[in-house]
């Protein structure tokens, strides 16, 4: 009898070892510690400040010179990416608009205005600029690519597909990164990764460190979405070798430390460094997520308040509206969230915006309306994990239990991307079905 019990227990242990993958640590601080230094970013900022000073002197000597204005506009846009200072992006816009008012129809200026508008999540404005540039015809290749960007942001995959099919073979870097985004939005992540891998290979042949870094950093994100966490991590490290001040990759490593390694202290240490050198509200959202995992409700609420206070500044425009909508949906402000979601749909009629609207409607007590929005605009049109999870909740609460199970299980496959807090919530929902 004892031998039988021993055999059964042994079999169960073996089965558990097969079906439950052991948790192993991916992020090791010795790999990236030397990147957690303000010196790398300080050097980049000093170089940029020197270039800005040079062109400002030129502009002071020749006020109204549109060549100098355009140079400065590009540098200020780069300054925003380095510093997170939203005022630099507005300075860039101001210079570009001044040129466009005096010399309308310059394609390069219209493209830059569109690029800035995309950064500000002002997608209707971006579409207006880039359609004008496209209509002029000069530099049609770049305008077509940017028009595809806007089409994808506004949920028009058909137009993006037609534009990409009509402009270039899949042998150009700029083409491949749009192709990757199109595949990603079509829920074909494997094809998206293959396109981005080709883009990264092309970037390496170009010998341009910024281009190589950008491609690798984005590829690191995509490997994470695939669940290839180790590959994501090593790709972020490779990206950092081409740009030691790559904050995006460092944030990606922080997420791995938190979501995969379950090492919140290390994640907070990395994020604390990022906050000290890069003044954007985003980091408070990650810290709030970590606090929720640690069951520190006071810290979670504090970080959300800090985020809301900063992200709601008029200077940010639409940039953080979706995150603000989410937070308001969870509070006693669901009706306000509903209005924000409606604005988002007008600005960006994309399945993810409709998902926001459905969630805000559900949280406001309009479950039937939420379900209708889901069925018309979200289900079958996006495989984004957050949309799958929220669709599962709404389907469950409206009695569609089998459909809810399917959505929860699909979302569960992206547990790394969603994070441990949401993953635990999904598990509880599945237990209740």
Could you walk me through the main structural features you see in this protein, from its secondary elements to its overall organization?
The protein is mainly alpha-helical and 433 residues long. Among the domains are: 172-272, Tetratricopeptide repeat domain (Serine Threonine Protein Phosphatase 5, Tetratricopeptide repeat, Alpha Horseshoe); 320-433, Serine Threonine Protein Phosphatase 5, Tetratricopeptide repeat (Alpha Horseshoe), CATH 1.25.40. The protein is built from 25 helices and no strands. It has helices at 2-19, 29-32, 38-61, 66-83, 86-102, 107-119, 123-136, 140-153, 157-167, 173-185, 189-206, 209-226, 229-242, 247-260, 264-277, 282-293, 297-311, 321-330, 334-347, 351-363, 367-377, 385-397, 401-412, 415-418, 420-432. The protein is globular, with a radius of gyration of 23 Å. The two termini are 37 Å apart.
């Amino acid at each position: 009898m004892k031998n039988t019990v021993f055999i059964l227990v042994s079999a169960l242990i073996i089965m558990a070892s097969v079906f439950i993958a052991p948790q192993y640590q991916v992020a090791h601080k010795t790999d990236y510690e030397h990147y957690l230094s303000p010196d790398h970013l300080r050097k980049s900022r000093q170089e940029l400040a020197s270039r800005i000073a040079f062109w400002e002197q030129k502009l002071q000597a020749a006020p109204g010179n549109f060549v100098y204005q355009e140079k400065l506009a590009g540098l200020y846009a780069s300054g925003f990416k380095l510093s997170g200072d939203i005022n630099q992006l507005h300075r860039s816009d101001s210079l570009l608009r001044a040129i466009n008012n005096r010399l309308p129809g310059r394609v390069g200026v219209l493209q830059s205005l569109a690029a800035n508008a995309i950064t500000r999540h002002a997608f209707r404005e971006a579409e207006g600029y880039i359609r004008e540039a496209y209509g002029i015809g000069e530099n049609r290749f770049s305008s077509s690519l940017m028009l595809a960007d806007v089409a994808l942001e506004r949920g028009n995959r058909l137009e993006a597909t037609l534009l990409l099919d009509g402009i270039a073979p899949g042998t150009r870097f700029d083409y491949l990164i749009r192709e990757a985004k199109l595949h990603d939005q079509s829920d074909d992540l494997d094809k998206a990764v293959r396109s981005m891998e080709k883009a990264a290979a092309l970037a390496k042949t170009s010998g341009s460190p910024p281009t190589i870094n950008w491609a690798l950093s984005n590829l690191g994100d995509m490997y994470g979405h695939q669940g290839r966490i180790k590959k994501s991590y090593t790709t972020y490290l490779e990206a950092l070798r081409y740009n030691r001040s790559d904050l995006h990759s460092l944030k990606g490593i922080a997420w791995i430390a938190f979501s995969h390694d379950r090492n919140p202290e290390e994640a907070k240490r990395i994020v604390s460094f990022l906050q000290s050198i890069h003044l954007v509200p985003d980091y408070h959202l990650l810290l709030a997520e970590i606090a929720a995992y640690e069951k520190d409700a006071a810290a979670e609420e504090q970080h959300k308040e800090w985020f809301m206070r900063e992200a709601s500044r008029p200077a940010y425009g639409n940039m953080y509206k979706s995150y603000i909508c989410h937070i308001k949906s969870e509070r006693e402000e669901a009706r306000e969230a509903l209005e924000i979601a409606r604005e988002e749909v007008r600005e960006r009629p994309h399945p993810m915006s409709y998902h926001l609207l459905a969630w805000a409607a559900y949280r406001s007590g309009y479950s039937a309306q939420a379900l209708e929005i889901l069925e018309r605009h979200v289900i079958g049109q996006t495989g984004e994990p957050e949309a799958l999870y929220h669709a599962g909740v709404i389907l469950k609460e409206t009695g569609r239990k089998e459909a809810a199970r399917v959505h929860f299980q699909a979302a569960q496959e992206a547990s790394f991307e969603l994070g441990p807090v949401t993953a635990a919530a999904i598990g509880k929902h599945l237990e209740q079905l």
